[in-house]
């Protein structure tokens, strides 16, 4: 495992995102605004640390939407979204009720949105560059 991943404190959660996707970039901004405990760190899937995290779960290396790396394990699709929601302030942790929905159904809905995200929300020509004030939350190499 990459020394960089090993140096991440256990209580931190890394959100890996598609830096070109407007929906994913909006999700990152949404998370930052609702993360007063600063639980989340961020990395684009295409950055070296994103590639390293994906390599910990070879079955997920082709996933190109949001992933969550927590406690040495990579989570994808609806499970990643529910992990994120569970750590946000406000009423977002109530989304945990969706864990009762079988994962294959949750993931099917998630994949449908992920498949259509560029046509619905658009795509940037360059990867997101974090704001200077927020750069400490991003694990760019």
Q: What spatial order of strands do you see in the largest sheet?
A: 2-1-3-4
**Roughly how many Å apart are the termini?**
16 Å
- Total DSSP E strands: 4
Helix content: 25-40%
Secondary-structure element pattern, one letter each: HEHEHEEHH
Radius of gyration: 14 Å
* Low-pLDDT residue intervals, each spanning 5 or more residues: none
Strand count, sense and barrel status of the largest sheet are: 4 strands, mixed
What spatial form do the alpha-carbon principal axes imply? globular
Structural class by secondary-structure content = alpha+beta
Instruction: Count helical runs.
Output: 5
- Average pLDDT level: 88
- Sheet-strand content, in percent, reads 5-15%
Structural description of this entry:
The mean pLDDT is 88. 26% of the residues are buried. The chain is of the alpha+beta class. A four-stranded mixed sheet has the order 2-1-3-4, with helices on both faces. The chain contains five helices and four strands, in the order H-E-H-E-H-E-E-H-H. Strand 3 and strand 4 form a beta hairpin. It is globular.
């Amino acid at each position: 495992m990459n020394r960089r991943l090993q140096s991440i404190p256990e209580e931190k959660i890394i959100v890996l995102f598609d830096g070109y996707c407007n929906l994913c970039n909006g999700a990152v901004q949404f998370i930052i605004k609702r993360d007063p405990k600063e639980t989340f760190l961020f990395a684009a899937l295409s950055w070296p640390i994103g590639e390293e995290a994906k390599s910990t779960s070879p079955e997920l290396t082709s996933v190109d939407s949001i992933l969550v790396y927590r406690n040495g394990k990579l989570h994808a699709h609806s499970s990643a979204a529910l992990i994120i929601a569970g750590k946000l302030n406000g009423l977002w942790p109530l989304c945990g009720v969706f864990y009762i929905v079988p994962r294959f159904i949750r993931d099917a809905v998630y994949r449908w949105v992920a498949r259509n995200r560029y046509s619905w929300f658009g795509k940037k020509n360059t990867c997101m560059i974090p704001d200077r004030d927020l750069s400490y939350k991003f694990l760019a190499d």
